[in-house]
DNA sequence: CCTACCGATCGGTAGG
DNA sequence: CCTACCGATCGGTAGG
Protein backbone atom coordinates (compact mmCIF):
# COMPACT_ATOMS: atom_id res chain seq x y z
CA UNK A 1 0.00 0.00 0.00
CA UNK A 2 2.81 2.35 0.86
CA UNK A 3 4.48 1.34 -2.39
CA UNK A 4 1.29 1.99 -4.37
CA UNK A 5 0.88 5.46 -2.90
CA UNK A 6 4.45 6.47 -3.46
CA UNK A 7 4.40 5.13 -7.02
CA UNK A 8 1.31 7.18 -7.73
CA UNK A 9 2.93 10.20 -6.15
CA UNK A 10 6.05 9.60 -8.22
CA UNK A 11 3.94 9.64 -11.38
CA UNK A 12 2.24 12.86 -10.30
CA UNK A 13 5.55 14.52 -9.48
CA UNK A 14 7.05 13.46 -12.79
CA UNK A 15 3.95 14.76 -14.56
CA UNK A 16 4.43 18.10 -12.81
CA UNK A 17 8.02 18.24 -14.10
CA UNK A 18 6.89 17.52 -17.65
CA UNK A 19 3.90 19.87 -17.57
CA UNK A 20 6.20 22.61 -16.35
CA UNK A 21 8.80 21.91 -19.02
CA UNK A 22 6.59 21.33 -22.09
CA UNK A 23 3.18 22.53 -21.00
CA UNK A 24 0.16 20.33 -20.27
CA UNK A 25 -1.11 19.99 -23.82
CA UNK A 26 2.30 19.29 -25.34
CA UNK A 27 3.03 16.52 -22.83
CA UNK A 28 1.92 13.07 -23.91
CA UNK A 29 1.19 10.15 -21.65
CA UNK A 30 3.93 8.35 -23.61
CA UNK A 31 6.42 11.05 -22.52
CA UNK A 32 5.33 10.52 -18.95
CA UNK A 33 5.46 6.72 -19.16
CA UNK A 34 8.99 6.83 -20.57
CA UNK A 35 10.15 9.11 -17.78
CA UNK A 36 8.75 6.93 -15.01
CA UNK A 37 9.95 3.76 -16.74
CA UNK A 38 6.61 2.15 -17.58
CA UNK A 39 4.73 1.21 -20.72
CA UNK A 40 2.15 3.90 -21.59
CA UNK A 41 -0.81 1.74 -20.65
CA UNK A 42 0.65 0.86 -17.25
CA UNK A 43 0.28 4.44 -16.08
CA UNK A 44 -3.44 3.84 -15.94
CA UNK A 45 -3.05 1.29 -13.16
CA UNK A 46 -2.13 4.21 -10.93
CA UNK A 47 -4.10 7.17 -12.21
CA UNK A 48 -7.37 7.52 -14.08
CA UNK A 49 -6.54 10.07 -16.74
CA UNK A 50 -4.19 12.81 -17.87
CA UNK A 51 -6.84 15.26 -16.73
CA UNK A 52 -6.68 13.81 -13.21
CA UNK A 53 -2.95 14.45 -13.08
CA UNK A 54 -3.44 18.13 -13.75
CA UNK A 55 -6.26 18.30 -11.21
CA UNK A 56 -4.15 16.60 -8.57
CA UNK A 57 -1.22 18.95 -9.14
CA UNK A 58 -3.27 22.14 -9.20
CA UNK A 59 -5.61 21.28 -6.34
CA UNK A 60 -2.93 20.06 -3.95
CA UNK A 61 -1.09 23.28 -4.61
CA UNK A 62 -4.27 25.30 -4.12
CA UNK A 63 -4.80 23.55 -0.81
CA UNK A 64 -1.38 24.61 0.44
CA UNK A 65 -2.20 28.22 -0.38
CA UNK A 66 -5.65 27.95 1.17
CA UNK A 67 -4.42 26.45 4.43
CA UNK A 68 -1.47 28.83 4.63
CA UNK A 69 -3.71 31.82 4.04
CA UNK A 70 -6.22 30.67 6.65
CA UNK A 71 -3.45 30.45 9.26
CA UNK A 72 -2.14 33.90 8.49
CA UNK A 73 -5.58 35.47 8.17
CA UNK A 74 -6.60 34.28 11.62
CA UNK A 75 -3.52 35.63 13.36
CA UNK A 76 -3.90 38.47 15.79
CA UNK A 77 -1.13 40.55 14.29
CA UNK A 78 -0.70 43.65 12.15
CA UNK A 79 -1.50 43.72 8.46
CA UNK A 80 2.15 44.37 7.73
CA UNK A 81 3.17 41.22 9.60
CA UNK A 82 0.52 39.26 7.71
CA UNK A 83 1.80 40.49 4.36
CA UNK A 84 5.29 39.48 5.39
CA UNK A 85 4.03 36.02 6.23
CA UNK A 86 2.19 35.78 2.92
CA UNK A 87 5.47 36.41 1.13
CA UNK A 88 7.01 33.64 3.23
CA UNK A 89 4.11 31.34 2.34
CA UNK A 90 4.65 31.84 -1.38
CA UNK A 91 8.37 31.23 -1.05
CA UNK A 92 7.88 28.16 1.17
CA UNK A 93 5.64 26.59 -1.44
CA UNK A 94 7.87 27.62 -4.34
CA UNK A 95 10.96 26.11 -2.71
CA UNK A 96 9.09 23.00 -1.67
CA UNK A 97 7.22 22.12 -4.87
CA UNK A 98 8.68 24.32 -7.63
CA UNK A 99 7.32 22.32 -10.57
CA UNK A 100 3.81 22.03 -9.15
CA UNK A 101 3.53 25.70 -8.36
CA UNK A 102 4.57 26.61 -11.89
CA UNK A 103 1.96 24.25 -13.34
CA UNK A 104 -0.54 25.70 -10.88
CA UNK A 105 0.26 29.19 -12.20
CA UNK A 106 0.50 28.50 -15.91
CA UNK A 107 -1.64 25.47 -16.74
CA UNK A 108 -4.68 25.76 -14.48
CA UNK A 109 -6.79 27.01 -17.37
CA UNK A 110 -6.76 23.53 -18.87
CA UNK A 111 -8.61 22.11 -15.86
CA UNK A 112 -11.99 20.64 -16.71
CA UNK A 113 -15.23 20.97 -14.82
CA UNK A 114 -16.07 20.32 -12.06
CA UNK A 115 -12.50 20.77 -10.81
CA UNK A 116 -12.14 24.11 -12.58
CA UNK A 117 -14.95 25.59 -10.52
CA UNK A 118 -13.42 24.39 -7.24
CA UNK A 119 -10.12 25.83 -8.31
CA UNK A 120 -11.60 29.21 -9.14
CA UNK A 121 -13.50 29.26 -5.85
CA UNK A 122 -10.31 28.58 -3.91
CA UNK A 123 -8.61 31.37 -5.81
CA UNK A 124 -11.44 33.76 -5.19
CA UNK A 125 -11.36 33.00 -1.50
CA UNK A 126 -7.61 33.58 -1.41
CA UNK A 127 -8.07 36.89 -3.19
CA UNK A 128 -10.80 38.00 -0.78
CA UNK A 129 -8.72 37.29 2.28
CA UNK A 130 -5.66 38.94 0.76
CA UNK A 131 -7.67 42.06 -0.02
CA UNK A 132 -9.14 42.12 3.49
CA UNK A 133 -5.62 42.16 4.90
CA UNK A 134 -4.71 45.03 2.59
CA UNK A 135 -7.83 46.93 3.59
CA UNK A 136 -7.11 46.26 7.26
CA UNK A 137 -3.69 47.86 6.83
CA UNK A 138 -5.15 50.83 5.05
CA UNK A 139 -7.75 51.40 7.77
CA UNK A 140 -5.00 51.22 10.39
CA UNK A 141 -3.19 53.95 8.48
CA UNK A 142 -0.27 51.65 7.69
CA UNK A 143 -0.91 51.09 3.98
CA UNK A 144 -1.81 53.56 1.30
CA UNK A 145 -3.16 52.78 -2.14
CA UNK A 146 -5.89 53.88 -4.53
CA UNK A 147 -7.24 50.85 -6.37
CA UNK A 148 -7.16 47.71 -4.26
CA UNK A 149 -7.80 45.40 -7.20
CA UNK A 150 -4.82 46.71 -9.13
CA UNK A 151 -2.57 46.65 -6.09
CA UNK A 152 -3.63 43.10 -5.22
CA UNK A 153 -3.04 41.85 -8.75
CA UNK A 154 0.35 43.45 -8.97
CA UNK A 155 1.49 42.01 -5.66
CA UNK A 156 0.25 38.58 -6.70
CA UNK A 157 2.18 38.89 -9.96
CA UNK A 158 5.30 39.77 -8.01
CA UNK A 159 4.84 36.72 -5.81
CA UNK A 160 4.14 34.45 -8.78
CA UNK A 161 7.26 35.72 -10.47
CA UNK A 162 9.24 34.74 -7.39
CA UNK A 163 8.18 31.12 -7.96
CA UNK A 164 10.29 31.08 -11.10
CA UNK A 165 13.13 33.06 -9.53
CA UNK A 166 14.09 30.53 -6.89
CA UNK A 167 16.76 28.97 -9.11
CA UNK A 168 18.62 32.25 -9.54
CA UNK A 169 18.57 33.63 -6.01
CA UNK A 170 18.89 32.25 -2.58
CA UNK A 171 15.94 32.24 -0.30
CA UNK A 172 17.03 35.08 1.99
CA UNK A 173 17.94 37.47 -0.79
CA UNK A 174 14.65 36.89 -2.59
CA UNK A 175 12.61 37.21 0.57
CA UNK A 176 14.39 40.41 1.56
CA UNK A 177 13.87 42.03 -1.82
CA UNK A 178 10.24 41.00 -2.03
CA UNK A 179 9.52 42.33 1.44
CA UNK A 180 11.13 45.62 0.60
CA UNK A 181 9.39 45.99 -2.78
CA UNK A 182 5.95 44.99 -1.55
CA UNK A 183 6.24 47.38 1.38
CA UNK A 184 7.29 50.16 -0.97
CA UNK A 185 4.13 49.57 -2.97
CA UNK A 186 1.95 49.62 0.12
CA UNK A 187 3.54 52.63 1.82
CA UNK A 188 2.61 56.22 1.17
CA UNK B 1 -2.83 41.67 -53.87
CA UNK B 2 -4.39 43.87 -51.23
CA UNK B 3 -7.07 41.24 -50.80
CA UNK B 4 -4.46 38.49 -50.44
CA UNK B 5 -2.57 40.39 -47.75
CA UNK B 6 -5.63 41.27 -45.76
CA UNK B 7 -6.92 37.69 -45.95
CA UNK B 8 -3.61 36.44 -44.61
CA UNK B 9 -3.69 39.08 -41.90
CA UNK B 10 -7.22 38.10 -41.04
CA UNK B 11 -6.09 34.50 -40.58
CA UNK B 12 -3.20 35.61 -38.39
CA UNK B 13 -5.44 37.81 -36.27
CA UNK B 14 -7.99 35.04 -35.85
CA UNK B 15 -5.20 32.67 -34.90
CA UNK B 16 -4.07 35.15 -32.25
CA UNK B 17 -7.61 35.19 -30.82
CA UNK B 18 -7.72 31.40 -30.68
CA UNK B 19 -4.20 30.98 -29.30
CA UNK B 20 -5.07 33.45 -26.58
CA UNK B 21 -8.34 31.70 -25.75
CA UNK B 22 -7.30 28.05 -25.91
CA UNK B 23 -3.52 28.14 -26.00
CA UNK B 24 -1.32 27.36 -29.00
CA UNK B 25 -1.19 23.59 -28.55
CA UNK B 26 -4.89 23.19 -27.88
CA UNK B 27 -5.86 25.15 -30.99
CA UNK B 28 -6.27 23.05 -34.11
CA UNK B 29 -6.02 24.27 -37.66
CA UNK B 30 -9.59 23.00 -38.02
CA UNK B 31 -10.69 25.40 -35.25
CA UNK B 32 -8.97 28.19 -37.10
CA UNK B 33 -10.41 27.23 -40.48
CA UNK B 34 -13.93 27.14 -39.07
CA UNK B 35 -13.52 30.58 -37.53
CA UNK B 36 -12.29 32.18 -40.73
CA UNK B 37 -14.87 30.31 -42.81
CA UNK B 38 -12.60 28.10 -44.86
CA UNK B 39 -12.01 24.38 -45.25
CA UNK B 40 -8.99 23.29 -43.17
CA UNK B 41 -6.77 22.70 -46.18
CA UNK B 42 -7.52 26.12 -47.68
CA UNK B 43 -5.69 27.83 -44.83
CA UNK B 44 -2.48 26.59 -46.38
CA UNK B 45 -3.00 28.72 -49.48
CA UNK B 46 -2.29 31.71 -47.22
CA UNK B 47 0.17 30.50 -44.63
CA UNK B 48 2.80 27.79 -44.56
CA UNK B 49 2.21 26.17 -41.20
CA UNK B 50 0.73 26.48 -37.74
CA UNK B 51 4.23 27.18 -36.51
CA UNK B 52 4.50 30.15 -38.88
CA UNK B 53 1.35 31.65 -37.40
CA UNK B 54 2.85 31.66 -33.93
CA UNK B 55 6.12 33.08 -35.27
CA UNK B 56 4.30 35.84 -37.10
CA UNK B 57 2.28 36.81 -34.03
CA UNK B 58 5.20 36.76 -31.61
CA UNK B 59 7.75 38.41 -33.87
CA UNK B 60 5.51 41.24 -35.04
CA UNK B 61 4.74 41.95 -31.42
CA UNK B 62 8.42 41.77 -30.51
CA UNK B 63 9.16 44.26 -33.27
CA UNK B 64 6.74 46.76 -31.82
CA UNK B 65 8.45 46.53 -28.48
CA UNK B 66 11.90 46.74 -30.07
CA UNK B 67 11.10 49.82 -32.12
CA UNK B 68 9.26 51.49 -29.27
CA UNK B 69 12.14 50.85 -26.90
CA UNK B 70 14.69 52.18 -29.38
CA UNK B 71 12.76 55.45 -29.70
CA UNK B 72 12.53 55.91 -25.97
CA UNK B 73 16.08 54.79 -25.29
CA UNK B 74 17.49 57.39 -27.69
CA UNK B 75 15.57 60.28 -26.21
CA UNK B 76 17.48 63.00 -24.44
CA UNK B 77 15.27 63.00 -21.37
CA UNK B 78 15.39 61.86 -17.77
CA UNK B 79 15.21 58.21 -16.78
CA UNK B 80 11.93 58.89 -15.04
CA UNK B 81 10.43 60.27 -18.25
CA UNK B 82 11.69 57.23 -20.13
CA UNK B 83 10.10 54.85 -17.66
CA UNK B 84 6.86 56.75 -18.02
CA UNK B 85 7.06 56.34 -21.76
CA UNK B 86 7.82 52.64 -21.44
CA UNK B 87 4.60 52.23 -19.49
CA UNK B 88 2.81 54.07 -22.28
CA UNK B 89 4.45 51.80 -24.86
CA UNK B 90 3.18 48.68 -23.11
CA UNK B 91 -0.31 50.08 -22.84
CA UNK B 92 -0.33 51.30 -26.45
CA UNK B 93 0.53 47.82 -27.66
CA UNK B 94 -1.89 46.13 -25.26
CA UNK B 95 -4.80 48.30 -26.34
CA UNK B 96 -3.88 47.98 -30.01
CA UNK B 97 -3.27 44.22 -30.31
CA UNK B 98 -4.55 42.66 -27.09
CA UNK B 99 -4.72 39.07 -28.34
CA UNK B 100 -1.27 39.14 -29.94
CA UNK B 101 0.40 40.57 -26.89
CA UNK B 102 -1.13 37.85 -24.70
CA UNK B 103 0.10 35.16 -27.07
CA UNK B 104 3.47 36.90 -27.14
CA UNK B 105 3.57 36.70 -23.35
CA UNK B 106 2.19 33.21 -22.76
CA UNK B 107 2.91 31.10 -25.83
CA UNK B 108 6.35 32.20 -27.02
CA UNK B 109 7.95 29.12 -25.52
CA UNK B 110 6.37 27.01 -28.26
CA UNK B 111 8.32 28.85 -30.94
CA UNK B 112 10.72 26.63 -32.87
CA UNK B 113 14.23 27.36 -33.98
CA UNK B 114 15.48 29.47 -35.64
CA UNK B 115 12.71 31.89 -34.69
CA UNK B 116 13.05 31.12 -31.01
CA UNK B 117 16.61 32.39 -30.97
CA UNK B 118 15.65 35.65 -32.70
CA UNK B 119 12.86 36.08 -30.23
CA UNK B 120 15.14 35.56 -27.25
CA UNK B 121 17.70 37.95 -28.68
CA UNK B 122 15.07 40.65 -29.10
CA UNK B 123 13.97 40.07 -25.53
CA UNK B 124 17.50 40.21 -24.23
CA UNK B 125 18.09 43.49 -26.05
CA UNK B 126 14.91 44.92 -24.59
CA UNK B 127 15.98 43.86 -21.13
CA UNK B 128 19.44 45.40 -21.54
CA UNK B 129 18.07 48.76 -22.61
CA UNK B 130 15.46 48.72 -19.86
CA UNK B 131 18.13 48.02 -17.26
CA UNK B 132 20.37 50.76 -18.63
CA UNK B 133 17.53 53.23 -18.15
CA UNK B 134 17.08 52.03 -14.59
CA UNK B 135 20.81 52.32 -13.93
CA UNK B 136 20.83 55.79 -15.49
CA UNK B 137 18.16 56.86 -13.03
CA UNK B 138 20.05 55.37 -10.13
CA UNK B 139 23.28 57.14 -11.08
CA UNK B 140 21.40 60.42 -11.36
CA UNK B 141 20.17 59.86 -7.82
CA UNK B 142 16.54 59.60 -8.97
CA UNK B 143 16.00 55.88 -8.50
CA UNK B 144 16.97 53.64 -5.63
CA UNK B 145 17.06 49.85 -5.64
CA UNK B 146 19.31 46.99 -4.58
CA UNK B 147 19.08 44.22 -7.13
CA UNK B 148 18.47 45.51 -10.64
CA UNK B 149 17.55 42.09 -12.02
CA UNK B 150 14.81 41.58 -9.47
CA UNK B 151 13.50 45.13 -9.89
CA UNK B 152 13.49 44.80 -13.68
CA UNK B 153 11.66 41.49 -13.61
CA UNK B 154 9.06 42.76 -11.21
CA UNK B 155 8.37 45.88 -13.26
CA UNK B 156 8.10 43.76 -16.42
CA UNK B 157 5.64 41.47 -14.63
CA UNK B 158 3.57 44.49 -13.63
CA UNK B 159 3.52 45.70 -17.22
CA UNK B 160 2.65 42.25 -18.57
CA UNK B 161 -0.18 42.00 -16.09
CA UNK B 162 -1.52 45.28 -17.43
CA UNK B 163 -1.92 43.65 -20.86
CA UNK B 164 -4.64 41.45 -19.40
CA UNK B 165 -6.15 44.26 -17.35
CA UNK B 166 -7.21 46.44 -20.25
CA UNK B 167 -10.71 44.95 -20.31
CA UNK B 168 -11.42 45.89 -16.70
CA UNK B 169 -10.04 49.41 -16.55
CA UNK B 170 -9.92 52.38 -18.80
CA UNK B 171 -6.66 53.50 -20.24
CA UNK B 172 -6.14 56.57 -18.06
CA UNK B 173 -6.86 54.84 -14.78
CA UNK B 174 -4.53 51.97 -15.59
CA UNK B 175 -1.76 54.26 -16.77
CA UNK B 176 -2.06 56.46 -13.70
CA UNK B 177 -1.90 53.52 -11.30
CA UNK B 178 1.00 51.91 -13.10
CA UNK B 179 2.96 55.13 -13.12
CA UNK B 180 2.39 55.61 -9.45
CA UNK B 181 3.25 52.01 -8.50
CA UNK B 182 6.35 51.78 -10.67
CA UNK B 183 7.64 55.07 -9.32
CA UNK B 184 7.00 53.86 -5.77
CA UNK B 185 9.17 50.85 -6.49
CA UNK B 186 11.94 52.97 -7.94
CA UNK B 187 11.93 55.71 -5.30
CA UNK B 188 13.81 55.57 -2.03
C1' DC C 1 2.42 -4.29 -15.34
C1' DC C 2 2.63 -5.79 -20.32
C1' DT C 3 1.05 -6.83 -25.32
C1' DA C 4 -1.97 -5.54 -28.51
C1' DC C 5 -4.92 -2.49 -30.14
C1' DC C 6 -8.83 1.20 -30.86
C1' DG C 7 -11.20 5.35 -32.56
C1' DA C 8 -10.33 10.16 -32.80
C1' DT C 9 -7.81 13.82 -34.13
C1' DC C 10 -3.83 16.06 -35.55
C1' DG C 11 -0.92 19.02 -39.18
C1' DG C 12 -0.44 18.92 -43.71
C1' DT C 13 -0.38 17.38 -49.06
C1' DA C 14 -2.05 16.09 -53.84
C1' DG C 15 -4.53 17.38 -57.41
C1' DG C 16 -7.66 20.00 -59.57
C1' DC D 1 -10.38 27.34 -52.49
C1' DC D 2 -12.35 22.53 -52.31
C1' DT D 3 -12.52 17.18 -52.14
C1' DA D 4 -10.15 13.52 -50.75
C1' DC D 5 -6.85 11.68 -48.18
C1' DC D 6 -2.26 10.56 -45.60
C1' DG D 7 0.85 9.06 -41.85
C1' DA D 8 1.61 10.14 -37.14
C1' DT D 9 0.22 10.54 -32.74
C1' DC D 10 -3.03 11.08 -29.23
C1' DG D 11 -5.59 9.32 -24.66
C1' DG D 12 -7.22 5.33 -23.28
C1' DT D 13 -9.12 0.11 -23.02
C1' DA D 14 -9.25 -5.13 -23.16
C1' DG D 15 -7.47 -8.95 -21.51
C1' DG D 16 -4.30 -11.45 -19.25
Task: Give the helix level of chain A as a range of percent.
Answer: over 70%
Q: Ends of chain A: how far apart?
A: 56 Å
What CATH architecture of chain A do you see?
A: Orthogonal Bundle
CATH class of chain A: Mainly Alpha
Tell me the series of helices and strands of chain A, N- to C-terminal: HHHHHHHH
Question: CATH homologous superfamily of chain A - what is it?
Answer: Tetracycline Repressor, domain 2
Share in β-strands of chain A: under 5%
Query: Radius of gyration of chain A from the CA trace?
Result: 18 Å
Number of strands of chain A: 0
Number of structurally distinct domains of chain A = 1
Name the shape of chain A in a single word.
elongated
- Calculate the mean pLDDT score of chain A and round it: 96
For this structure, the quaternary state is: homodimer
Extract low-pLDDT stretches of chain A: none
Largest interface: A-B, 28 and 28 residues
Total helices of chain A: the number is 8
| Largest beta-sheet characterization of chain A | none
Structure, described:
The structure is a homodimer of 188-residue chains. Chain A has helices at residues 2-22, 29-36, 50-74, 79-96, 98-106, 115-139, 148-165, 171-186. Chain A has 188 residues and is an all-alpha fold. Chain A has a single domain, classed as Orthogonal Bundle (Tetracycline Repressor, domain 2). In chain A, helix 4 (79-96) packs antiparallel against helix 6 (115-139) and helix 7 (148-165) runs antiparallel to helix 8. The radius of gyration of chain A is 18 Å and the shape is elongated. The first copy, chain A, binds a DNA duplex (16 and 16 nucleotides) through residues 28-30, 38-45, 49-51.
